[in-house]
Amino acid sequence: MALSKSADRLRHLIEKAIEDHKITREEYEQIIMMATEDGYINSQEKALLQVLQDMIENKLVKFVAS
Prior knowledge:
Elements: H1 5-20, E1 22-24, H2 25-36, H3 43-57, E2 62-64
Parallel strand pairs: 1-2
Helix pairs in contact: 1-2, 1-3
């Protein structure tokens, strides 16, 4: 199944955070706003957000100052 446009944009932002092992509050807020901009979080977006959240909870991705 192909990713939706918004899910693809989310994927790029989340992959950057995963590669860097860090994310700023601003980047996190941008990801959340992007996921909710159309008023609906589809299953692809939910899965991507869950991966990021799991990595934050497991401290594989850490919040840093911008």
